[in-house]
Specification:
Length: 287
């Protein structure tokens, strides 16, 4: 995977966010870039940080503002620095980190680490927009004893449909089955008409042309070499990234949480070519 990203190292991180006050200050400036408009004074007033509490006070009337309000950090007893560190860490990986590793690294309990990652993943759920030009669609099964295609011995496996634009973004959907009636609406909703759509020979894709796409099949099941553009290497590369990560780092992911894990991989993949360091992209997802 090519990356143009400016390197944002652990050293950058610890210089910029050495303590909770620095994290809170960042959050305040991020949420109130033009200064804080005091709801009591009805104008932008000077606010100062209150010692030992995560809030800022209006210089004129004393009204208090909590920059964490409405964010995943609010009312958390975990220090903001630990939250930021977890986000930094999540952003600086391709294969993912486990809650166990976060526990070891930061000293929070396993339960807290697990909850933090779960909360951070909610920030990484974003719409990929409509995919176009050249798109690859593939279905896979994740979980159970062996990840694989089409759930041969599908017990314990969860079906996932992946759609990837070449040199572009990928979007994944956890589905209850990989039937045509499930797959086609997803393609219709995520891919522009007339797009060249590459799939394998599975019959669920038989109606792509009838749905207004330019369908091209590749027959790699028969052990043929890839001829020209007829391949699904993009989406398959993404699957192997996910499966390496989920298999090696997260071990077992329950179907209930699989989409949020996929969102995490998707987010990193979809922002891989941006110049802004990934960590700052994650930070900017705070709402
Ligand atoms: Zn005020």
């Amino acid at each position: 995977m090519n990356t143009k990203q400016t390197k944002y190292t652990a050293k950058h991180f610890s210089n910029e966010f050495p303590n909770d006050d620095a994290c809170l200050e960042w959050l305040k400036n991020y949420r109130f870039p033009d200064g804080i408009e005091c709801p009591t004074c009805k104008k932008t007033t000077k606010h100062y940080k209150i010692a030992k509490r995560p809030c800022y006070k209006c210089d004129l009337c004393g009204h208090e503002i909590y920059p964490t309000a409405g964010t995943i950090f609010h009312k958390s007893t975990t220090p903001l620095t630990t939250w930021f560190e977890a986000m930094f860490w999540m952003a600086t990986t391709r294969s993912g980190h486990s809650a166990k590793e976060l526990q070891r690294r930061t000293g929070v309990t396993y339960k807290t680490a697990w909850r933090m990652f779960k909360q951070i993943r909610t920030l990484l759920d974003e719409s990929e927009g409509i995919l176009r030009n050249e798109v690859e669609v593939d279905e896979t099964y994740i979980g159970g004893k062996h990840h694989g295609k089409r759930g041969r011995g599908a017990e314990g496996k969860t079906a996932v449909i992946g759609i990837a634009q070449r040199q572009g973004k990928v979007t994944t959907n956890v589905v209850t089955n990989a039937k045509r009636s499930t797959v086609m609406p997803l393609i219709n909703a995520n891919v522009a008409k007339k797009t060249i759509v590459y799939t394998d020979e599975y019959p669920i894709y038989d109606t792509l042309d009838a749905n207004g796409f330019d369908h091209k099949r590749c027959n790699h099941g028969a052990g043929e070499y890839v001829i020209g553009d007829a391949h699904t290497n993009t989406i398959e590369g993404f699957w192997s990234l996910v499966k390496r990560g989920i298999g090696g780092v997260y071990h077992a992911v329950s179907p209930k949480y699989l989409q949020s894990y996929l969102n995490e991989y998707q987010f990193r993949y979809n922002h891989r070519l941006e110049e802004q360091p990934m960590f700052l992209t994650v930070l900017n997802q705070i709402r």
